[in-house]
Structure formats: structure tokens, C-alpha cells
């Protein structure tokens, strides 16, 4: 079976023949080794040296040099907003206290859909609207800032600082 052994990060893509794409939700974008099939039918084995977070716009490099584009799949989420910055911070604290993955934007927070948490947010004065979009949650304190919430390290060569 054809293997993909490297990741080209979105910012480092230059040239290369993109032959297919994989559409993966947040959970499926954290991988090391698994069989995959692109939407165009290309079957391959993702075979990385260690687990890595695949980001929207990355490409997997096949053994023959061709590329498979990585696309973040839309997911059912709650978009949480608040009437002011203090109220949003308070909601973020309550969400974080439940140890669930969250993507934090300047004016909203996104979490996986959960009707109980939607009710909690509304009870605390916020809004919780169901949306469908790619999910890019914050990493845990020990994950290097990437979208997976556990302490295992991963290889990367991003075009941003981890300071």
C-alpha cells in the first residue's frame, strides 16, 4: 500500500502535485498511523514517526512525492457568545472547568454540540447557537498549543512561534 510519511504544513506548500484530499473532523486529524482513503479514491497508509495534528490546508506527502490535501470537516458545534468581554471570560471559565475542548475566538467560543452545556451557557446569560463549521480547539497546557488535549508531544515545523 502507498504510504504517506511526512506532512507539509499549509504555510510551506510550494509545488507538488495534489492528487486527492481527505476531509477529517477534529478527532481524525490527530493521527500517527492509519489507513486512509481520499474523496477521489486514493488509498494510502498514513505512517508518521509520531502522532501529529493535521491542520486544514496541510498536505500529506506520499512516497512518490505526490500530495494529498487535508481539509477540516465541518462539525456540529455550539457558538457561544456573551453580552460583554467579562461575561465571555466567565463563560470560558465555566466551559474550561468541564475540561472539554474549546476553540476561543475574540468574540466567541466554539465547543462540540451539547444541549446540557447550551442550557448552562444560556442560564449564565450567554447565547449558544448551533453551527456547523470546522473545529480547531485549543491544545491542552502540555500539547504545545495545538488542537489536541493530551500531553504527548508531536513533530512539527509550523511557521509560527510557540512562545
From TrEMBL:
CDD domains: UreE
Keywords assigned: Chaperone, Cytoplasm, Nickel
Residues in UreE urease accessory N-terminal domain copies: 3-68
Tree of life domain: Bacteria
InterPro entries: UreE, UreE_C_dom, UreE_N, UreE_N_sf
Region (Disordered): 135-163
HAMAP family: UreE
Record's function text: Involved in urease metallocenter assembly. Binds nickel. Probably functions as a nickel donor during metallocenter assembly.
Similarity remark: Belongs to the UreE family.
Protein name per Swiss-Prot or TrEMBL: Urease accessory protein UreE
Origin species: Methylobacterium komagatae
Amino acid at each position: 500500500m502507498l504510504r504517506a510519511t511526512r506532512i507539509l504544513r499549509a504555510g510551506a506548500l510550494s509545488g507538488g502535485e495534489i492528487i486527492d484530499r481527505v476531509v477529517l473532523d477534529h478527532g481524525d486529524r490527530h493521527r500517527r498511523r492509519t489507513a486512509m482513503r481520499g474523496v477521489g479514491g486514493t488509498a494510502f497508509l498514513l505512517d508518521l514517526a509520531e502522532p501529529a495534528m493535521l491542520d486544514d490546508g496541510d498536505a500529506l506527502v506520499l512516497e512518490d512525492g505526490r500530495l494529498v490535501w487535508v481539509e477540516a470537516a465541518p462539525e456540529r458545534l455550539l457558538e457561544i457568545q456573551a453580552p460583554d468581554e467579562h461575561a465571555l471570560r466567565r463563560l470560558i471559565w465555566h466551559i474550561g472547568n468541564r475540561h472539554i475542548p474549546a476553540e476561543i475566538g475574540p468574540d466567541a467560543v466554539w465547543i462540540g454540540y451539547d444541549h446540557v452545556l447550551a442550557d448552562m451557557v444560556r442560564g449564565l446569560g450567554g447565547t449558544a447557537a448551533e453551527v456547523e463549521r470546522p473545529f480547531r480547539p485549543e491544545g491542552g497546557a502540555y500539547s504545545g498549543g495545538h488542537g489536541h488535549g493530551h500531553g504527548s508531544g508531536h513533530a512539527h515545523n509550523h511557521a509560527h512561534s510557540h512562545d
